[in-house]
Amino acid sequence: MQITSISERRPTRQIMVGPIPVGGGAPVTVQSMTTTKTSDVEGTLQQIYDLAGAGADIVRCTCNDLAAAEGLAHIVPRSPIPIIADVHNQYKMALAAIASGVDCLRLNPGNIRKIDHIKAIAMEAGEKGVPIRIGVNGGSLHPDLYAKYGDTVTPAALVESALNELSYFEEVGFDMVKISVKASSVPLMVEAYRELSKVTDHPLHLGVTEAGPPPGGLIKSTAGIATLLMEGIGDTIRYSLTADPVEEARAGRQLLESLGLRERQNVDLIACPSCGRAEIDVFAIAEEAQRTFATKKIPLQIAIMGCVVNGPGEARGADLGVAAGNKRGHLFVHGQNVAVVKEDEMVEALVDWAEYIVENGVEAALARVDLVKAKKEAEIDRKKLLLEQGEDVNQGQKRVDLIRKI
Ligand code: SF4
Question: Which of 272, 285, 394 to mutate to test the pocket of ligand 1 (most atoms within 8 A of CB)?
Fold first, then answer.
């Protein structure tokens, strides 16, 4: 049974970023941004391929000078995913980016302020069929709005900035627009997006800007983006991390998969937190498994459990797992013991079984082993462990007795 507590997605109109639909019921997409100089065509393409491999659907490259725009002209036709040009201060760079053939523009209304320039970009984009993201940013709000709202950034100021820009676009008949109202404060950006979603049906691009390095940046981004997605708000997302952008793409993809908003493509690795019963170094094995599965497209939930006493039961919902017992690894598929392997071969065995299941299905995997024999072996190790460690291996009762003596 699929359980979901995500609100129904807010209806939005749809725009196309190259061949990728954004909004209008399309799957939520993952974005990231290259960190190379855009004029470095080969280096940028290498990073784009890495990002696409890690789960990015769309990628943004800066277009900050003519060399970058010229780079884009070579990058766009060779890119495996659509390219958005990020333009800040110079409106001519927006025109150059459109001429380079990009699939979308991102404009910061706080930085390109002349209304004539904004309209000129929108008219050119409209003629060439290039959509634009209005990318409002709490850190670079238009000075007039900053002053209007008491020299502070508020949700209303961010929304007003976006709507002002949208009105200039509408005056020249341009409506292929998506909008973001990012801020580095999670409560501020959450409130701004909530407000914005009430007043426009343009698709929304979610993100916590300048979230910082992991793990703090991951936590902040997830807090903001996931909160909004759970409320049905958001059509495309970006983690802004101070890290290799591949981390951003992976995190974005993983978030969407864990919320059930995108089909699983990668392993969902679960592992017990370890405790006094653990028969193996759970942290080391989980890390090894994470490294090994990171590059494999295996859409299964896989469990690493520290002992056979509680492991298989606690992870019975996993597609595949291993629990340690008596210095051996007990493999289980959908809670049923299937094989016993040496401790140092656990990850290798998981890969073999995972690949077999993906190729042939669970039934075929279960049919190839003697389930009764595997269950018996697991039971022997489980009993041995209980005998050696007792029921109270974490010594809870001992501590309680001590406390009672105080
Ligand atoms: S009881 Fe076993 S499965 Fe549970 S945390 Fe401890 S080692 Fe892990």
Answer: 272
